[in-house]
Specification:
heterodimer; A: 202 residues; alpha+beta; six-stranded mixed beta sheet; four-stranded antiparallel beta sheet; 10 strands; B: 562 residues; mainly beta; 6% helix; 34% strand; rod-shaped
Amino acid sequence: MKKNLLLEIIFAATFLLFVMQAVNAGVSHPLPTSIELMKGESGRFKFQIQNLGKPNNIVCGASLEGVSPLKVVFDEEEMKVAADSVKYFYGTVSVPNDYTPTTTGFNPSSEQYTQKFCVECKPDSTNPGASVQIRSCDLPINVNIVEVRTTDNMYVIPKPQPKIPVAVYVGVVVLIAAITLILIKIRKKKPIKPTKIRKKKK
Amino acid sequence: MAIKKRAYLLPILLSLIFYIYYISFVISFSDLGSARGTFTTGNVPPSAFTNLSIQDSATTWDNTSLDTHDISPNIRWLNGTDNNGDPVSTHVCVANNSAYIGQFISQSNNGNCTFTANVAAGTYSYTGLSGLWFNSTNRTYYIALIPDDGQANGTELNGTLYFLDSRPYVSLLNTTQTHSQTPIIRWSVQDNDAGGINQWPADTLYHYMYIGNNSNITAYYINMSANNDSTTITSILPWGDVGSDWANRTINVTIWADDTNLTSNNYTTSFTLYDYLPHINDVQMVDTGAFGGSCQTSGAYCALNPVEHSNATVAVRLNVTDTDNDCTATNHKAWIMLCLNYTGNTNCDETGGYNYSWQIDNVEAGNTDVCILTFSLNKTAADITPEFFRVPGIYKLHLNVTSQAGERTNLSYTNASWQFGTLKAVNYPDTVILGNGNPTLGQWSAGTNQYVLTNWGNDIMALQWNVSNPTNGVTPWTLNSTDFAIDDDSTQTDDTNNLQMVYLNATNKYFNYSTGLERCTAWNCNDASRNETLDTYYHIAPPLGLSSGVYNTTITLTLSSK
C-alpha cells in the first residue's frame, strides 16, 4: 500500500505543471463621467478596452454591478478587441419613464445615481493550462437625473442602426411589383359598364 | 561806192560809243579822289520774312501767339522777296532777353543767342530749336529771323515765344487700408500737359515717394522712382502692435511727381496696414473617434483616456475666425498647452505651468473666414503626450493662436479645460508556474517564481482573487481553502514582506495593500516608497489522489477602485 502511494506521488510530481496565461486588458472608466438626463431620456457613454502589447485577440463581456433605477444596455454583448489594439465600446443608459424621485419635486433639483459595471476579458482561443482573467470592476456610469436639463451631454456617437439585409429590399421591390401586376390584371378584367349592357338590352 | 561808204560808218559809230563809255568807267574807279558823283551797285537786301509760326500740337501751328509746351519746338515762316532775285538764307537766333532784339543783324552769331541756326536758302522752317529750358511754369524767349541774300541781311523778323508748362498735381491715394505688407498702391496725378494744343508733347512724369511711420517718414521706403501712378511697395511694412481684435499700423505716405521741369507739391496722406487677429470660436479634443464637445464649455467634453503603460493619443480640432480670410499654415500658428494643475502650479499659458505643448500645424480650411486647425498627425507617445500614471481629473488647457501680427491681447477665449480619464490596467506575466513547477502530491510546493503585478493604469485599485478548481479533465482538484495560496513571500511559511499569505478558492479574497495598488509616479513604476507593484507567489499543495496530467484552472483577479 505504502509502495503504491509512493509511486503515485512520484508519478504525479512528474507531470503536474500548472501554467497560467494572463489576460491583462486595460479598461477605462466610461465617458462622460457624468450624464444629465430627465425622466424618460437616454444618454450615450463609451469606454475603452486596451489590449496593447498582447499577441492574442481577446473577447470581453460587460456585466452590471448592483442595482439602480437606471437601465443600461451595451451596444455589443461580445466585445472583441484585436491583438495589440485599443477599441472603444458604447452603451446607452436610460431613466425609465416611471422613475420616481426619492425627494419630492426634485428637491434638490437633481438626484445622482451610479450604475457600475465590470468588464472581463479572455483570449478568443483557449489554451491548455491555468488562465488568469482580469476583471475590471467599479466602472461607474454616473447619471444626474434632473427635472430640467441644464447642459448638453458630451457627444457620443449614436448606436448604429442595424443594417437592413439586401434580401429585405429585394423582397419589398418584388412585393410592389406583384401588387402592381395584380392591379393591372384586375383593371383589364373589369366587366362592361352596366349602362352599355342596358342599352344592348333595349 | 556810196553803199561801201555807209558800211564803214556803222562800225565806226559803235566803236566810238564803246570807247566813250569805257573811258568814263576807267576814270571813275582809277581816280576816285579826283572823281565826284554817285553810282548804284545794283543789289537790294531781301525783304523781311513774315508769318512766323510755331508748332503747338501734333497737328497744329500757331502764328498769332507763339506759345507752345514744346521746349524744342518746330518753327516755320514765309519767305520775303529779294529784288535782285538772290537766294535768301535765314539766320535764326533765339535769346532769353528782349534787349538783344534788334541787334541780331550785326550780332547774329554772338553769344547773346541761346540758340542759333543758319537755314539754307529755299528752306523756311526749322525742326527742333534746342538749348531752351523751362525755369518756371512759363518761360519767354525772343526770336529773330534774319534774311540773308548772300550780299546783305534783310530786316529781321522778331517774335516772342511763350513756353507753357503746367505743374503736376498729386492726390487721392486709392489705398486707405491694406492687409498686405507689400501692397500695390495707386494714386491720382493730374498734369495738364497731356498732348493738347499748347500741351504738346505730353509730359513723362516721375513719381517719388516716402513711406514711414509717424516718427520716421523714411523708415520703410525711400525715394521710389517710377513713371506711373502706382507701385508695389517691395519693402516689407511691419505689422502693427496687437490689440484686442486687430493689429493696425498707420503708414504715412508722401508722394510727389516731377515732369522734369516742374515738381508737384507734396501729397501727404496715410493708409492703415491691418491684420485681424484670429478669434477662437471653439476647441475640441479627443483621443480617438468622434469629438465630444467644446473644451470651452466643459473639460468633460474633451477627455483623453490614459493608455496602459504608454501615452494618450491626442486629436484636436480648433475653430478660428480670421476676418482676413487668409487661413494658411504659413499665416497662422496655433499651439495648445495642456496643464496638470498640481499644487502651486496654477498658471497655465505659454509663460509657464504647462506640461504638454504641441503646435497645431494643419489648416484644413483656407481662404475663408473660418480656419479649422488640426494636427497633421495625431499626437502619440513620441510627441510626449499625457502618461498613463497621471492623476485623473479636469485640468486647464491654453491656446495660443496667432496670425501674421500675433495673438489677441483679449485672452478670454484662449483658456479651456480638459479631462484625463481613469484607466484600470495592470501588468502581469503572460505565463506563471504554480508552486515550484515540480509539485509533490500531499506536500506544499512553494512558489519560488516571483510574479510582479504592476499598476499600468492610473486608478488606485483593490485586488480580489479567486481560483476555480483545477482539473485535468479526469480528476478534479477541489480546493479546500488550505491548499492553494497567494503570497508576497517565496515560501508559505515566511512572512517577511508586507502581506500575509491568502488561501484562494472560488470565492473572492482580497490580497492587496491597505493602500491598494497605487498609481505610479513615473514611467518605471519604481518608487520604493509607494505600493505601485505587488510581488506574488503561488504556493500549492495538491492533494494525494490526483492523477497525472495538465490541470486547467482559472484565476480571476478583480480590479476595483480603492
